[in-house]
Design a protein that fits this description.
globular; 378 residues; 2 domains; Rossmann fold; binds thiamine diphosphate; two-stranded antiparallel sheet; 43% helix; 8% strand; alpha/beta
């Protein structure tokens, strides 16, 4: 689609770039010791029940993540991308959404999946190679995990534009990494979303690395949030290991989008404490000291200190979460263990309405390949 064929519905005047710039310091509400400090412009509208729920989701995400890594080690998954350390970023962001809203995730978003009520085992089929996913995106408003970097940003922008054209009250959030901001797809998505005032939040989890490439080799921009100015949308920056900051910042961006004021870019500063995927060896590109430093900033430990001081964490609640986590892990094992592989010919389904001529040749080629492997194996 070209911008000319479908003009924006409203044409705002020139934007003062100063109103779009991120603040000098990332928004932080809970300091490293777990003490709450109010920050102007980012009020917290959370009740005790919400605080407990945020904690519950973070602990569940960490346990689900551990189970997925174990399934990979047992040979049940081909690969898995851990979210360890990024729980606050993902969960604070997704918690700011309402039921009618949508999430378009990358491959690392098991925490956001939980907030949307997605059964994690079902999503893991992608990592087993059995199917794209067994969850229903229409029921949960959580799209399929996207392995090609940044492509989900386009799905999100397009979906948000469509929702706006249809007059629907919904906000779209898409997650991607710092590395993805060097790709063309997020750029095109952010530009279109801004031009069309689409209700789309671009939530960047800056976990410092794109596999082994550090952020310093990724961009010359002062911060990722500064890139927002170039699109004409506000850039927010927050401590991604502080769940109250990620929530409060996302809340502002979501409310803004819901009021019809267009998209926002959020940069949450965090750290991937595990390997990039189970196929990666992070000791080859980062030091043990760096990892230790970030472990001290663990998002769950920090929030726990706050909740304990507020009298919101007790043994009963911890036991309840533990039981829930065991239930999730058991269901993941049931769903994934020895799940039958699909027919490789499915590769050709759901791609074209009118397949090109080369398609039949390629299908025949794969059929021959499978047959010769079967002959070779018997
Ligand atoms: C289009 C595309 N190019 C390259 C890759 C290979 N690849 C997989 S993960 C990755 C790094 C992504 O880093 P980032 O966007 O920071 O996200 P993170 O994995 O840190 O969450 C790359 C280059 C890919 N999956 N898709």
């Amino acid at each position: 689609m070209s911008a000319a064929s479908n003009p924006p519905q409203s044409v705002p005047g020139p934007v003062d770039p100063n109103t779009l710039l991120p603040p000098d310091e990332p928004v932080q509400l809970l300091d490293d010791q777990g003490t709450l400090h109010e920050v102007e412009g980012f009020p917290l509208d959370l009740k005790d029940e919400d605080f407990r729920n945020l904690y519950r989701y973070m602990v569940l995400a960490r346990r689900v993540d551990k189970q997925a890594i174990n399934l990979q080690r047992q040979g049940q998954l081909g690969v898995y991308a851990s979210l360890l350390g990024q729980e606050a970023a993902q969960i604070g962001g997704a918690y700011a959404l309402d039921e009618q809203d949508w999430v378009f995730p990358s491959y690392r978003e098991m925490g956001a999946a939980l907030v949307r009520g997605v059964d994690p085992g079902k999503v893991l089929h992608l990592f087993r190679g059995t199917w794209l996913s067994n969850h229903d995106p229409m029921a949960t408003h959580f799209g399929l995990l996207s392995i090609p970097i940044g492509t989900q940003a386009l799905h999100a922008a397009g979906f948000a534009m469509g929702a706006k054209f249809d007059g629907k009250d919904l906000v779209v959030m898409t997650y991607f990494g710092d590395g993805a901001t060097s790709e063309g797809d997020p750029h095109e998505a952010m530009n279109f979303a801004a031009v069309y005032d689409a209700p789309c939040i671009f939530f960047v989890q800056n976990n410092q690395y794109a596999i082994s490439v550090p952020l310093s080799k990724q961009t010359r921009a002062p911060t990722i949030a500064h890139k927002a100015v170039g699109y004409g949308m506000p850039g927010f920056r927050c401590d991604g290991n502080d769940v109250l900051a990620t929530y409060a910042v996302a809340r502002q961006a979501v409310d803004r989008a819901r009021r019809g004021e267009g998209p926002s870019l959020i940069e949450a500063l965090t750290y991937r404490m595990e390997a990039h995927t189970t196929a990666d060896d992070p000791t080859r590109y980062r030091t043990p000291e760096e990892l230790e430093e970030w472990k001290r900033r663990d998002p769950i430990a920090r929030f726990e200190t706050f909740l304990e001081a507020e009298g919101l964490l007790d043994d009963d609640f911890r036991a309840q979460i533990d039981e829930e986590a065991r239930g999730y892990a058991a269901r993941m094992r049931e769903e994934i263990y020895d799940a039958p592989h699909g027919d490789p010919m499915e590769l050709f389904e759901h791609v074209y309405v009118d397949p090109p001529a080369s398609y039949e040749e390629q299908k025949a080629m794969l059929r021959r390949e499978i047959a010769s492997n079967q002959e070779g194996g018997s």
